[in-house]
Design goal:
- This protein has 161 residues and is of the alpha/beta class.
- It has one domain (2-160): Flavodoxin domain (Rossmann fold, 3-Layer(aba) Sandwich).
- Helix content is 42%, strand content 20%.
- It contains six helices and six strands, in the order E-H-E-E-H-H-E-H-H-E-E-H.
- The model has no long low-confidence stretch (mean pLDDT 96).
- The structure holds flavin mononucleotide.
- Residues 9-15, 56-60, 88-90, 93, 104, 130, 133, 135 line the site of flavin mononucleotide (FMN).
């Protein structure tokens, strides 16, 4: 089994989360390729069994580069394959979403797009908290990410049997 993890980042926080997910999946015996979205030239579903996609939250949604990347995920190729989505966002964003009862998370919007492509969402999205625009990550977020990736590994292995 081999997956692809794709992320966008301006200040390195989302990259750090993508790297943590990649390392944790590898520790669980799952092969992954990790790409900055800018480096993905061609995306072939034949090479991969699953997709993990992450974006910084910008103006309540995913970055433009991730939006563009989603256009390369063709439903006829990726249909039924598992996916997980994550984002980085500020704690105030969660509060705002709660108060307004409206979704402002990049990951939720990515997940919606991938479900529309008939991909199979393995876990609820991971929303990682970043303090301010440049970070740092809120304390404990790396550990929470490792827990998420371990759970993801279990789901991926279960799906394979
Ligand atoms: C132009 C811009 C818009 C942003 N809009 C939001 C937002 O709507 N909600 C939010 O929680 N964070 C917002 N942020 C903060 C980003 O989520 C934060 O910079 C990002 O998580 C950092 O990730 P990175 O280090 O990978 O770039 C915004 C940041 C920038 C630069």
């Amino acid at each position: 089994m081999k997956g692809i993890i794709v992320y966008d980042t301006s200040y390195g926080n989302t990259k750090k989360i993508a790297e943590t997910i990649a390392e944790t999946l590898k520790e669980s015996g799952i092969e992954v390729d990790l790409f900055d979205v800018k480096d993905v030239k061609k995306l072939s579903a034949k090479d991969y069994n699953f997709l993990v996609l992450g974006s910084p939250t910008k103006f309540g949604t995913m970055s433009l580069a991730i939006r563009f990347f989603l256009g390369k995920v063709k439903s006829e190729e990726w249909m039924n394959k598992p996916f997980a989505a994550f984002d980085t966002e500020n704690p105030e964003n969660i509060e705002r979403a709660h108060i307004e009862n409206k979704e402002w998370s990049a990951a939720e919007k990515i997940a919606e797009r991938l479900r529309d492509k008939k991909m199979n969402q393995l876990l609820p999205v991971l929303k990682v908290l970043v303090l301010g625009q440049k970070g740092p990550l809120k304390e404990g977020e790396i550990e929470r990410t490792k827990d998420y990736a371990r759970e993801l590994a279990i789901k991926l292995k279960r799906g394979k049997d």
